[in-house]
Design brief:
Elements (H helix, E strand, L loop, with lengths): L10 H16 L19 E6 L5 H14 L9 E3 L3 H4 L5 H14 L11 E6 L7 H11 L2 E6 L7 H7 L4 E6 L4 H7 L13 H17 L10 H24 L4 H12 L5 E2 L1 H10 L6 H13 L3 E4 L6 H6 L2 E5 L5 H4 L7 H15 L3 E6 L5 E7 L5 E7 L5 H15 L8 E6 L13 E5 H5 L3
Parallel strand pairs: 1-4, 1-5, 2-3, 3-4, 11-12, 12-13
Antiparallel strand pairs: 6-8, 7-8, 9-10, 10-11
Helix pairs in contact: 1-4
């Protein structure tokens, strides 16, 4: 099989690849917090793990290695390699490096090239460092009895580009920062009973943990940090995402306008934004930028997973294009860095957490505005066809607040497009609201709702 390898002068690279493969098999599996990320499992498809920087993509790759080991695949058939290695970069890597890696792997494990019940799998982290990697993955999936799982920088692993470059051969797993349940698991505080079996003490403890999560967020590296260090680290995440995944990636020539836009969007979690108003505000500050370019900047920020946007549900396309879109940061921990009011807003944080949880559960999410102008925070359509109308409110103790939230839901249930949907209010209140409450609307304590799956 040596005749398939590159010329003899590539021996140092071949030796390096051989050593990296052997090291990957002998390295113990890291002890990591188990993630609940939904992973599509479709035979013959590459898995592409994508998400914002520092959200835990490499950890999910290790979790997949462990899953295949538990299913009976031999450890030597599951090499996990990071391609962000200065020794590899010194060889001016291209597709030839990946070809040599594959041939070295089959030299070391010749049985893996024989089709059978078991399949080996190449786990390639930071794959974007190798130009032309997409063609290599397509060819391997088409011609070799081995699976491929890839992950890399969000600047080079955009959802739209994976779809076009891999031509239907890849499925995506989107990694978010820790959910509330994953944060509890990371701290060894995850409850092992459903909410109906929680004691009063456990309810109080979990409510306190949710308050911390709303303030600190779920990025793995910030867990347990004191506030100053946490803010510094989260700010560096935003800065590197904006610089590397937006400014450098798209050759942005108006970085000041982009930085202003980031502050506006991250500081208004759960709020609506209008491109026309943003454009006017930028213009008033002497930052000349076209409305079309502004729309592109918002799209770039969403593609880099820094923000999540949802539009209005129902009506004409013109109505959907005209009404404001809602925006939240990818993690509630980013809100305190940019809140425009200069003070903590629990309602914004809770709305952010609920939207991200709905998306983790696979829901298509928008918001609903009735013909009479009443607005419901979220309309969610789940993969099994269920639909939900959801109002999010930090505190329902005020009667006028409670009536406002219920009025919008009841009006929304009368809309033709909302028939059959379940209506609910999610709040931080420890007990169900007192007084009159319509039978058609359910109330959920936020802690219990976030932990129900």
């Amino acid at each position: 099989m040596d005749d398939k390898l590159p010329a003899p002068q590539s021996a140092p690279l071949r030796d390096l690849l051989r050593q990296k493969l052997v090291d990957s098999w002998q390295a113990p599996l890291p002890q990591l917090t188990r993630r609940d990320t939904w992973i599509p499992r479709i035979p013959g498809k590459t898995l592409a793990v994508i998400g914002m920087r520092r959200s835990g993509k490499t950890s999910l790759l290790w979790q997949e290695v462990a899953r295949r080991l538990e299913a009976g695949t031999e450890r030597n058939w599951l090499p996990m390699l990071s391609l962000e290695d200065e020794r590899l970069m010194a060889h001016n890597p291209g597709v030839e490096l990946l070809d040599q890696l594959l041939e070295t792997y089959f030299q070391l494990q010749p049985q893996a090239r024989q089709a059978g019940a078991q399949r080996g799998c190449l786990f390639l982290d930071e794959i974007q460092r190798i130009p032309g990697w997409e063609g290599f993955v397509r060819r391997v999936m088409d011609s070799e009895p081995i699976d491929v799982v890839v992950s890399g920088s969000s600047a080079e692993m955009l959802s739209s580009e994976i779809a076009s470059s891999l031509r239907g051969r890849a499925m995506e797993a989107v990694v978010y920062p820790f959910s509330f349940r994953e944060c509890l698991r990371h701290a060894d505080l995850e409850p092992d009973q459903p909410s109906t079996h929680w004691s009063s003490a456990e309810r109080s403890r979990l409510a306190h943990q949710l308050e911390l999560y709303l303030q600190c967020g779920g990025f793995p590296e910030v867990q347990g940090l004191e506030e100053r260090s946490r803010r510094l680290l989260l700010g560096s995440y935003v800065d590197s995402t904006v610089l590397r995944d937006v400014i450098e990636r798209h050759a942005i020539r108006q970085p000041l306008a982009l930085q202003w836009l980031v502050r506006q969007l991250l500081g208004n979690g759960g709020g609506g934004f209008s491109l026309n108003k943003l454009h006017g505000a930028l213009k008033s500050q002497g930052l000349a930028i076209s409305r079309e370019h502004l729309a592109e900047l918002v799209l770039h920020l969403e593609s880099a997973f820094l923000i999540r946007c949802v539009g209005v549900v129902g009506g004409s396309l013109r109505r959907q294009m005209t009404l404001p879109r809602k925006v939240v940061p990818i993690d509630p921990g980013l809100l305190p860095l940019y809140e425009l009011e200069g003070r903590r807003n629990q309602g914004h944080a809770l709305e952010t957490v609920v939207l991200l949880e709905l998306q983790r559960r696979g829901a298509e999410v928008g918001y609903l505005r009735t013909g009479g102008g009443f607005e419901v925070d979220f309309h969610a359509r789940f993969p099994d066809g269920r639909r939900a109308l959801i109002q999010v409110c930090a505190d329902l103790s005020d009667d006028s607040t409670r009536q406002r939230e219920l009025r919008a839901l009841l009006k929304a249930l009368e809309e033709p497009g909302a028939r059959g949907a379940r209506a609910m209010v999610i709040s931080l209140d420890a007990r169900a609201p007192q007084g009159e409450w319509p039978e058609t609307v359910a109330w959920h304590n936020a802690v219990a709702w976030l932990l129900e799956h």
